[in-house]
Amino acid sequence: RARVQPGVVLDDLRNAAEKHHLTFAPDPSTHDHCTLGGMIGNNSCGVHSVMGGKTVENVEELRVLTSDGLQLTVGATSNEQFAQIIAEGGRRAEIYTKLRDLRDRYADQIRARYPKIPRRVSGYNLDDLLPENGFHVAKALVGTEGTCVTVLEAVTRLIDSPPYRSLVILGYPDVYSAGDHVVQVMEFHPIGLEGMDDRLIKDMQRKHMHPEDASLLPKGNGWLLVEFGGQSKEEADANAKQMMEALKKESDAPTMKLFDDKKEEEQVWKTRESGLGA
């Protein structure tokens, strides 16, 4: 666990966690300047959300301020805790009663219509108020974009950080072909997965990207950046090669490149992270 204030920059949290071989999994491309408060408001994802989930999966508790000045600590709520909150009365009891009524009114529709996809980040996380999800008020507030409360503090989940990483880039005829193969790539349990297309590269070149950055990519017009982890470099490389050997047997096999130069790996990730700005 890590207790953070909303103004903490993500990389400051990750650097502190790495001293204990841990990490906060969601890492958008703005990781060197985005704040935890923004990530909680936005329900941020990032390259390594395939390893540890979105921000909502990594928030355990929130200290919040309502528009009328009430400070609350919210998280998962057992039946006993809910009963105690209601018995105590007051504004907190009023808020929790209305949340429960909202949940009960729409529970069947939430179960039926909320899509079960890994990166569902749009809209309110009303499914976290369902009984089977522990009436988790903190998780329900993740992604609300500051429309419900102001976040004062968060208790976040940290997970094991693989000490060694290996990067493979897969090249496809276009970004749509790359997207079609994401499910297949996920079967090999990468710790990171990101996509790029030729338009991003062209935009980067217009912004005076170094030509050698583009030459690092294997042939194609759409790419998947696939990262594997391990307790040793050999283990990380072996996980990467297992995927590559399987993909080589496909009739529409992608072009592939396994990196063994850390500087080149960093160059590729910087190219991807700079793309949005370009």
Protein model, in words:
By secondary structure, this protein is of the alpha+beta class. Helices cover 41% and strands 19% of the residues. The strands form three sheets. A four-stranded antiparallel beta sheet has the order 1-5-3-4. A four-stranded antiparallel beta sheet has the order 8-9-7-10. The longest helix is centred in the middle third of the chain and has 24 residues, at 90-113. It is elongated. The model has no long low-confidence stretch (mean pLDDT 93).
Strand order of the largest sheet: 1-5-3-4
Q: Describe the biggest sheet?
A: 4 strands, antiparallel
- What is the overall shape? elongated
Number of strands: 10
Oligomer: single chain
Q: Runs with pLDDT <50, length 5+?
A: none
Tell me the span between the first and last alpha carbons: 35 Å
String of helices and strands:
EHEHHEEHHHEEEHHEHHEHEH
Number of helices: 12
Helix content: 40-55%
User: From the helix content, strand content and strand pairing, which structural class follows?
Assistant: alpha+beta
Average pLDDT reading: 93
Spatial extent as radius of gyration: 21 Å
Write a concise keyword list for the protein shown above.
alpha+beta; four-stranded antiparallel β-sheet
Give a quick precis of the structure.
The chain is of the alpha+beta class.
What topology emerges from the helices and strands here?
Layout: E1 2-4, H1 10-18, E2 22-23, H2 36-42, H3 49-52, E3 59-65, E4 71-74, H4 79-88, H5 90-113, H6 137-141, E5 150-156, E6 159-160, E7 164-172, H7 175-180, H8 182-186, E8 192-197, H9 198-206, H10 211-215, E9 222-230, H11 233-248, E10 255-258, H12 262-274
Helix pairs in contact: 4-5
